Amino acid sequence: MGAASATSAAAPAGTPPTASQGLPDSMARWLSHLETARRYSPHTLAGYRHDLARLVSLAGDTPPEALRHAHIRQYLARLHAQGLSPRSLARTLAAWRGYFAWWAPQAGLPENPAAGVRAPKLARGLPKALSVEQAQGVLDHASRGAGHDAIARRDHAMFELLYSSGLRLSELIGLDTAYVRTGEYESRSWLNLAEQEVLVWGKGGKRRTVPVGGAAMTALSHWLRERPALLAPDATPDDAAALFLGARGKRVTPRVVQLQLEKLAIAAGLPTRLHPHVMRHSFASHVLQSAQDLRAVQEMLGHANISTTQVYTRLDFQHLARAYDQAHPRAGRKKDTPRG
């Protein structure tokens, strides 16, 4: 770790080393494990890599296997003194804890040095969400603009599905038209038209099933009729299975979804910037307002811990067996919904 020591001499402690300096082999192998075995997103992996590089810089010449609780607490205090926000500190500590939970048993360490160390408490506020009227206005505008244009119909279907099922952006673009299994490819997430639901491979490799509302089913059926004309002739097995395609016939990218939703929000006269995650927040808030079934929303969002879901409300929820069809403002799910 000599390189990390040189870095810390030239910059404040905790400044991550450059990519050329790399990470210890154990850290690189953990990131590879998260990428291949756990299927973490590139965005999450980049954040973890940055947090591990920060640990390397703070540790200087001390190797990972020599770190103890006192080191981790000291490093966290130094980062706090440098002005890192509680949220950044919590994310950084989570990355360190995850790494050591994986590495400590292999290295024969007596303990996970990051276990039991707490970051400053976060002030958790309610995420930004649209009102029901705003959400319906945006989606109605998308419906009116769909016409017979394949891209417009794709966008309408994507945004209806985001709001209908509360998907993360990565989950939306990872969906396939149906379950596919060949010698070259096997689906992880897909649309089940017959059951009007999506099976989603979410964070941490956890799969969940989420219902799809009637407005989204109609938009999807219209898009699926247009989709074959957009598929590239030389499509890879992954692209050929993708539910949503870009203009070049490949699986749609996160950036395209973001840009198209921003354009829609502007065209609909929304007075705020609209990000795909806002649609997820709106889904959660609106279902909770109607049903007050925290556990059901937790399952649909794919939250591992119900405390994550609780940011959407300050009410003391009791168990209520309210169905999705009654709760969601655009549900209207019927078994005779057109299926394209």
Automatic annotation (TrEMBL):
Does DNA-binding count among this protein's keywords? yes
Per the record, where are the segments of Low complexity compositional bias? 1-20
Q: Locate the Core-binding (CB) domain: which residues?
A: 21-104
Keywords from UniProt, A to Z, are: Cell cycle, Cell division, Chromosome partition, Cytoplasm, DNA integration, DNA recombination, DNA-binding
Q: What ranges does the record give for the region Disordered, renumbered to this chain?
A: 1-24
Q: Which InterPro entries match?
A: CB, DNA_brk_join_enz, Integrase-like_cat_sf, Integrase_catalytic, Integrase_recombinase_N, Integrase_SAM-like_N, Recomb_XerC, Tyrosine_recombinase_XerC/XerD
Q: Where in the cell is it found?
A: Cytoplasm
Q: Is Metal-binding among this UniProt entry's keywords? A: no
SUPFAM superfamilies, sorted? DNA breaking-rejoining enzymes
In this protein, the active site sits at R168, K203, H277, R280, H303, Y312
**From the UniProt record, which GO molecular function terms apply?**
DNA binding; tyrosine-based site-specific recombinase activity
Q: Tell me a GO cellular component.
A: cytoplasm
Q: Which PROSITE patterns match?
A: CB, TYR_RECOMBINASE
Which biological process terms from the Gene Ontology are attached to this UniProt entry?
cell division; chromosome segregation; DNA transposition
Q: Which Gene3D superfamilies does its entry note?
A: 1.10.150.130, Intergrase catalytic core
Provide the Tyr recombinase domain boundaries. Answer: 125-325
Q: Which PANTHER family match?
A: PHAGE INTEGRASE-RELATED, TYROSINE RECOMBINASE XERC
Q: Which family does it belong to?
A: Belongs to the 'phage' integrase family. XerC subfamily.
Job description of the protein: Site-specific tyrosine recombinase, which acts by catalyzing the cutting and rejoining of the recombining DNA molecules. The XerC-XerD complex is essential to convert dimers of the bacterial chromosome into monomers to permit their segregation at cell division. It also contributes to the segregational stability of plasmids.
The record describes its quaternary structure and partners as:
Forms a cyclic heterotetrameric complex composed of two molecules of XerC and two molecules of XerD.
Please report the name of this protein according to its UniProt entry.
Answer: Tyrosine recombinase XerC
Q: Which organism is it from?
A: Orrella dioscoreae
